[in-house]
Fold this protein.
Amino acid sequence: MSMTSGPTTRPSLALRALLHRITGDPHSPYYVPGVVLVIAQGARIAVSVADGTDAQGAPLTERSIFPLASASKLAPGLAILRLLEQGRLALDDPLERHLPEARAARAGVTLRALLCHTSGLPLEFAPGQVEYGPSTSWASLGDACLQTPLAHPPRTLVQYSNVAYGLLGLIIEAVTGLDYRTAIEQLVFEPFGIEAYVGRPGPRPHAMVMDVDSPFAGTDLEPFNSAFSQHLVMPWSHVYSTAKGLLDLVRAYGGSRPDLLRPETAAEARTDQAGGVDGGFRTTDPFIGFAKSKSITWSPCPWGLTVEVKGSKRPHWTPLSASPGSFGQIGSSGCLAWCDPVHDVSWAVLGARTTDNGWLLRFGGALGSAALNLGSDAA
């Protein structure tokens, strides 16, 4: 069932007031200059609205292209699931079956563990392991992923890991024989009809985001905003897309395209794979190119095959009314995509400010409540 674009509902006065709370007061500690929000009921886009500007004052529209940061992981996750259905790999394949050079110090790591962040790999590279600069390339980053040792025994905790998704990117290349960008375009973006770009700029200038905490802020190497960032290939990041594109990515895990992903595969992907262990975003080291990163953990910490599963997590960027089986992905550039199969509602939020000031934790629940209330009203 594909997404229909039919007539959308005008945003309610309450929803517009909520958006204005986010974008209307530059003196608020949670201020965001602009937000794009898309809400779907079933297969129908119910609300699509843009409010405010990007970080440089350019008016946002529903077609604005944003950096997705960690929400980019939805794309390689889908690619792995499609290769699974083609019989070219299995979830419980050991890592070394596809990457023999990754054998050392990685006993017990499977593709399933990489997807649900229980591989034992750290969130990021060790400080100084990879240079961030003009010479940074997917080749150098992939080699660093192969050299990064486990930080914990596999399956003992959820440790959100960019390194794990770097290894999944290498597996996608090894299995398909294609470079990563081409493989993602052919396995995900093109067949799902998603406007998204990786390793190259889109046809329109992308929205700029504010509050980029990086030593390279204001330079030609600034993460998220620079042309350099647009051309980087990192399987854990660096997809650029619209709110509709982000929504389509997360809805694929909800079974929106059974012609491309079998319902039983999608159901397994959004089912907790972590086995009741604790964890989340545990780190003391900065992301590559950034000054720092932040930690948030939960006990327990359910996680699916790429998508986060809500469970009983608090604090969280979803409302209390979201079902425990709801799922999605957040991006530190200021974006969120979530799907609640119980309510048959999904939503995507793109903000023109990174998550560092906590705005998405502050307002994410209210935005999700607006989406779920829309579904309740329709029911």
About this structure: Residues 1-7 have pLDDT under 50 and may be disordered. The chain has one domain: 13-378.
